[in-house]
Amino acid sequence: MAFGRKRSGSVLCPGCGQLVGVRDDRCLSCDRRNPGLFGFAGMLRFDGPAVQSALIGANAVLFLVALLLSGSRIGMGGFLGFLSPDTEVLYWLGASGAVPIFMAQKWYTVLSAGWLHGGLLHILLNMYWLWNLFPAVSREFGPARTLVIYQAAAIGGFGLSSLLGAFPIAIPGLGGAGFTVGASASVCGLLGALLYVGRRTSSAFARMIWRYVIFLAVFGLLIPGIDNAAHLGGFGGGYFVASRFGVFGAERGRHGLWALGLLAGSVLAVLVSATR
């Protein structure tokens, strides 16, 4: 992402990706008005490694904030609960689930919960998978669209988990959650996007991704406290958004706008949750 306003020269049109002048009134290729976005069009071009580092950094910072706010109420027990923030603090910062969404009407927590974690091992596992999967998805879709997939998967994952937490169905392992946090829904969305790529390009690659999916599904069924509904919703959300983008389509500036909009929504969701 290029910071600052460009006052001369050329940029890529957000609509069609063709070169246009910063001061052009319309794009000659797609007729988009003000394709230079007043010189700020360069901000819509994302750098993959920088985005990946920023995602991991943001998750780490919010985890430390949650621990600091928890004080003496930090949990120290359980497989995933070692060094865990207080539940009330997580709720205040934007945890999702049936209780926040259906009882407190905090529907926007589908955007904030993915940046919070319930313990040290919880965040370490999620960041490990994020570190490994984000570059692979970014190579196929570009960093901006990968960021859209990542955030859309969180919405799908926490939406499904909250829905099944409020209206349970008789399927073992898919009970939903009253409270839920973590980046695993988004990580599963990245897996869903890779599965879509594999199904369109390479059966061998698709089989490899299926092995990862099966491993996570078995892990979720065997380990107590795993939100399998969020994983399923995130996986489906990632697959669906990736299918809308397509494998061979080029990344456009509008995808950067969508990514920035979702990021801004996530920040706003945390701030609104913390002030309610």
Structure summary:
The chain is mostly helical and 276 residues long. The chain has two domains: 10-44, no CATH class; 48-275, Up-down Bundle (Rhomboid-like fold), CATH 1.20.1540.10. It has ten helices and two strands, in the order ββαααααααααα.
* CATH homologous superfamily grouping of the largest domain: Rhomboid-like
Quick one: how many beta strands? Answer: 2
What proportion of the residues form beta strands (DSSP E)? under 5%
- Based on CA atoms alone, the radius of gyration comes out at 20 Å
Tell me the helix content. 55-70%
Order of helices and strands: EEHHHHHHHHHH
CATH architecture classification of the largest domain:
Up-down Bundle
pLDDT averaged over residues? 89
Tell me what you see in this structure.
- The radius of gyration is 20 Å and the shape is globular.
- It has 2 domains: 35 residues, no CATH class; 228 residues, Rhomboid-like fold (Up-down Bundle), CATH 1.20.1540.10.
- A hairpin with a 6-residue loop joins strand 1 and strand 2.
- The longest helix is centred in the middle third of the chain and has 24 residues.
- A two-stranded antiparallel ribbon has the order 1-2.
- It is built from 10 helices and 2 strands, in the order E-E-H-H-H-H-H-H-H-H-H-H.
- It is 60% helix and 2% strand.
- It is mainly α and 276 residues long.
